Amino acid sequence: MKIPKIKYGKRLTYSDYIYNFFATITGLTIFNIEFAKQVFKPPYEIREIKKHMDELGVKTFGIVSITGLIIGIVLSMQSQPVLQRFGATDFLPAMVSISVVRELGPVITALIFAGRVSSGIGAELGSMRVTEQIDAMEVSAVNPFNYLVVTRVIATTMILPILTIYVIFISLIGTYIAIILNESMTIKYFIDSVISAIEFGDFIPGIGKTFFFGFIVGIVGCYKGFTAEGGTEGVGRASTTAVVLSSLLILIFDMVLVKLSLWLWPTLG
Amino acid sequence: MADTRIVEIKNLTKRFESHTILDNITLDVHRGENLVVFGRSGQGKSVLLKCIIGLMPFDSGKILINNKDISKLTIKELNEIRKNIGFLFQGAALYDSMTVRENLEFPLKKIFPNISQREIDDKVKNTLELVSLEEAIDKMPSELSGGMKKRIGLARSIITDPELMLYDEPTTGLDPITTKEISELIINLQKKLNMTSIAVTHDLICAEIIADRAIFLKDSKIAYEGKLDELTSSSDPFLRNFFSHEIVKE
């Protein structure tokens, strides 16, 4: 696997920036191809995957819980006065749940996850690279790509959908709290409204795209960490560029996947 | 007469872009021998070790380990060769996220997948005894001093009983007393485990303890080769200058 090197330094020219842009795309593509080659090759490091899923879940549990609650509360607080003006506050649970399930839940969870996890993976693998721990693994006849990259990417791909479902649930709790602070609504009415508002066509594309987002977070973090160079400065760079690149790719892929889901499920529009 | 060569390097050339770091290097290392590679910083000493173990591809030439040309091997075949080689990295390269016990267990579990946990426990305990660090078994690498890290790194490299050991600056950054201790530990282990070794260093204390033979890399080539005392007592102005600085430094 020969990955093109990114140019760093204080005196980069415009042509260097253009080179870096294409080198990143090429590098990431090569990394993805290598992942596709390695993912089905034994040994299958199931224990490592479980360990990473545990760690990633615990690492992000607190922050996504708070985020989910705030999404629900803020969305209700913003929408309630507008709906009140039209006497349509009964539609609030349905409106918030559709927004959270289709778009806000998946994208915000993915962005939070990218900030917390992609940077962590970038820093961890980057530090392993510059301190020769990855070389030490290779010397022990272990394929570091399989052991470090494949396991982490599978873990992020599996854990993000679970976290997103959790965030959606928490944000609905937030929504209900915000509603009952201003007016009376029974929990039964709220649950019925939410269930009747969300269709299969809302849920599948919403959660389905988080598999892609989880993959992006894992592969970008690993790519940046695995190719880090230049000592501690390189580790810091791997960490920050992993967040920037994965967040950007999440938003770009979100746009593409929304278009794709509208094509597959025209009733969503 | 039986071929005693464990490593054969023939016309090895390694370049980084336009800069030639190793130029046409030819070198044999015989079974049971302790070879020390000297040279100033940036002369390709560590690169030579990384080429031998297949961590770095080279541009031309051949490296044969136990008569197998490593450039022609598949990764699976290369890994089979690596199972018989230990490598002590300059900074010990201990896995930060693992305890000392897990660091030592890691190569054992990967190289011998069918080994029982009881055998692993015994092996870890015995190897830690060899480096006199039994008490560090449950510590994290961040809790160890520089000298302890080197010892644990050494323990991890020898735990699979390799026949060839590669040392990349085994005593860099250590005080003279710890340097002497680590060097004596290296030579004692080699005698006990009957290993062959190639050590890259510019530390004369370490070299005096472990070297059977020494080579000196200069301008990308092997400039001098011989017994260590031949090199240190040489009338060549460059060698005299290099070793006098080393002696003064220590």
Automatic annotation (TrEMBL), chain A:
It comes from the Bacteria. InterPro entries: ABC_MlaE_roteobac, Permease_MalE. Keywords: Membrane, Transmembrane, Transmembrane helix, Transport. The chain crosses the membrane at residues 17-35, 56-77, 153-181, 242-265. GO terms for cellular component: ATP-binding cassette (ABC) transporter complex. It is found in: Membrane. GO terms for molecular function: phospholipid transporter activity. It is a multi-pass membrane protein. Its main location: membrane. Belongs to the MlaE permease family. This is ABC transporter permease. It comes from Stygiobacter electus.
From TrEMBL, chain B:
Gene3D superfamilies: P-loop containing nucleotide triphosphate hydrolases (3.40.50.300). PROSITE patterns: ABC_TRANSPORTER_1, ABC_TRANSPORTER_2. The keyword Nucleotide-binding applies. InterPro entries: AAA+_ATPase (IPR003593), ABC_transporter-like_ATP-bd (IPR003439), ABC_transporter-like_CS (IPR017871), P-loop_NTPase (IPR027417). Keywords: ATP-binding, Nucleotide-binding, Transport. GO terms for molecular function: ATP binding; ATP hydrolysis activity. Residues 7-244 form the ABC transporter domain. This is ABC transporter ATP-binding protein. It comes from Stygiobacter electus.
